[in-house]
């Protein structure tokens, strides 16, 4: 449906605008001195101008836009971000501002690229990334998931908190070069196949790790190398015999607690989240789907959203987040992000955004899951969704009387 709407916008473009800015652009964003290439598409004119970033097959579409005297402004309310570009000599230059941080952006008309005739080695499938010792979550290995068609590749790096989004690129001069920017988490990834069957990986972006070696899972296990962190074991609760307590206001100011009647004898997913968090954006559509499917059977979802001080005072981004994903489950304002650990007193070893705690009908935590991937993680994304559904179904089948 979204693709149809975008196509209609393009068909409705007036001639003057179509000759000026509408269409596909090759862009780059500067992150800490690294130029990260990405695609930007524009459509419409005047007050109805719009544009979108790409995340694999998905689009991050601007919520509003404006074009005046060669100056383009696109607002992305779900990230409280704005793209401002000026047209000069056929190029667009300006900045993308998110969470108060400006990053310079440059764009030129996308050039048609002939299909690559390069004979690329086969790197499709799952890899384990070794040597991620600087990870703040005590991880020793990540996962790299690659989808390949000839010289063209796409994929994602999956950490315990989620993945990079879908990076795309191609093989050239002995290397695969992939990149990604969809309004969040820009990243540049260079994969160089080695003679021993491994990949030399150079990652630049918000999770820069420098040089990393990628090996196949069977190689890692045979050599006794570190394995990726189990997202189901990463976090837990301090005392499983006690309920996971919360008491926070909703967006209308009404305080909601875990002892409220609406949660009695229900299966409750307590989701630690934030509208600033890209991996939380990845998870939200799935939680909506889960809630819509199982709410009538006794499922409740409570999102404890931790935000910056200015967003707590006026949660415009969170409201846009709720509207964009069609969230009908309970959303509460937990406070500033830095206060989350002291407020979530039952959580043990919690450090991943998002994290979901599974509460049974008896009010006690039955498990926790750290992070959430995007469709870029391919089969691992599907596996994670299937496991969530299975856990919810198992808990719903346990018709216990609540202790609350």
Describe this protein's structure.
By secondary structure, the protein is of the alpha+beta class. It has three domains: 2-109, Calycin beta-barrel core domain (Lipocalin, Beta Barrel), CATH 2.40.128.20; 125-222, Quinohemoprotein amine dehydrogenase alpha subunit, domain 2 (Lipocalin), CATH 2.40.128.120; 236-396, Glutaredoxin. Helix content is 18%, strand content 41%. The protein has eight helices and 27 strands. The protein has helices at residues 2-11, 15-18, 217-222, 278-294, 309-313, 316-325, 340-343, 379-396, and strands at 23-31, 34-43, 50-55, 58-61, 64-68, 71-76, 81-88, 91-98, 101-109, 125-130, 141-149, 152-159, 162-163, 167-172, 175-180, 187-193, 199-205, 210-215, 236-237, 247-249, 255-257, 267-273, 299-307, 330-336, 347-348, 355-359, 365-370. The strands form five sheets. A nine-stranded antiparallel β-sheet has the order 4-3-2-1-9-8-7-6-5. It has an eight-stranded antiparallel barrel with strand order 10-11-12-14-15-16-17-18. A hairpin with a 5-residue loop joins strand 26 (355-359) and strand 27. The longest helix is centred in the last third of the chain and has 18 residues, at 379-396. The chain is globular and about 60 Å long.
Keywords summarizing the entry:
single chain, 404 residues, alpha+beta, Lipocalin, Glutaredoxin, 3 domains, 9-stranded antiparallel β-sheet, 8-stranded antiparallel beta barrel, 8 helices, 27 strands, 18% helix, disordered N terminus
Taking pLDDT < 50 over at least 5 consecutive residues as the criterion, the unreliable ranges are 1-19
CATH architecture of the largest domain: 3-Layer(aba) Sandwich
The major β-sheet equals: 9 strands, antiparallel
SS summary, helix count: 8
Quick check: average pLDDT? 91
User: Based on helices, strands and strand pairing, what is the structural class?
Assistant: alpha+beta
**Alpha-carbon distance between the two ends:** 44 Å
Top CATH class of the largest domain = Alpha Beta
Please state the overall shape, judged from the principal axes of the Cα atoms: globular
Radius of gyration: 22 Å
The number of strands is: 27
CATH topology of the largest domain: Glutaredoxin
CATH superfamily of the largest domain: Glutaredoxin
Residue share in helix: 10-25%
The domain count comes to 3
């Amino acid at each position: 449906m979204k693709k149809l709407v975008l196509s209609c916008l393009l068909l409705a473009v007036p001639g003057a605008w179509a000759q000026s800015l509408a269409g596909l652009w090759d862009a780059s964003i500067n992150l800490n001195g690294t130029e990260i290439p990405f695609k930007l598409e524009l459509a419409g004119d005047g007050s109805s101008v719009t544009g979108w970033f790409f995340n694999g097959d998905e689009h991050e579409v601007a919520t509003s836009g404006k074009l005046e005297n060669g100056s383009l402004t696109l607002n992305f309310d779900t990230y409280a971000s704005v793209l401002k570009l000026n047209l000069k000599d056929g190029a667009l230059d300006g900045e993308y501002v998110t969470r108060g941080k400006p990053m310079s952006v440059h764009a030129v008309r996308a050039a048609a690229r002939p299909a690559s005739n390069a004979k690329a080695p086969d790197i499709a499938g799952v890899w384990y990334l070794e040597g991620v010792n600087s990870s703040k979550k005590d991880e020793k290995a990540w996962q790299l998931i690659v989808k390949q068609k000839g010289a063209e590749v796409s994929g994602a790096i999956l950490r315990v908190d989620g993945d990079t989004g879908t990076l795309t690129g191609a093989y050239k001069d002995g290397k695969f070069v992939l990149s990604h920017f969809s309004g969040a988490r820009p990243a540049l990834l260079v994969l160089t196949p080695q003679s021993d069957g491994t990949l030399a990986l150079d990652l630049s972006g918000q999770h820069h790790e420098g040089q990393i070696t990628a090996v196949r899972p069977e190689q890692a296990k045979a050599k006794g190398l570190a394995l990726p962190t189990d997202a189901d074991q990463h976090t837990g609760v301090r005392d499983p015999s006690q309920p996971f307590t919360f008491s926070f206001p909703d967006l209308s100011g009404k305080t909601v607690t875990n002892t409220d009647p609406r949660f009695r004898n229900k299966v409750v997913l307590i989701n630690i989240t934030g509208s600033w968090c890209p991996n939380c954006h990845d998870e939200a559509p799935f939680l909506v789907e889960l809630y819509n499917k199982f709410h009538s059977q006794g499922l409740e979802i409570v999102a404890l959203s931790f935000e910056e001080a200015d967003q707590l005072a006026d949660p415009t981004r969170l409201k846009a987040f709720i509207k964009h994903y069609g969230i009908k489950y309970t959303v509460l304002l937990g406070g500033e992000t830095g206060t989350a650990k002291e407020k979530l007193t039952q959580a043990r070893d919690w450090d991943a955004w998002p994290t979901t705690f599974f509460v049974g009908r008896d009010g006690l935590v039955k498990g926790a899951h750290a992070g959430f991937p995007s469709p870029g993680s391919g089969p691992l994304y599907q596996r994670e969704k299937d496991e969530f559904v299975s856990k919810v179904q198992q808990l719903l089948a346990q018709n216990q009387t609540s202790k609350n």
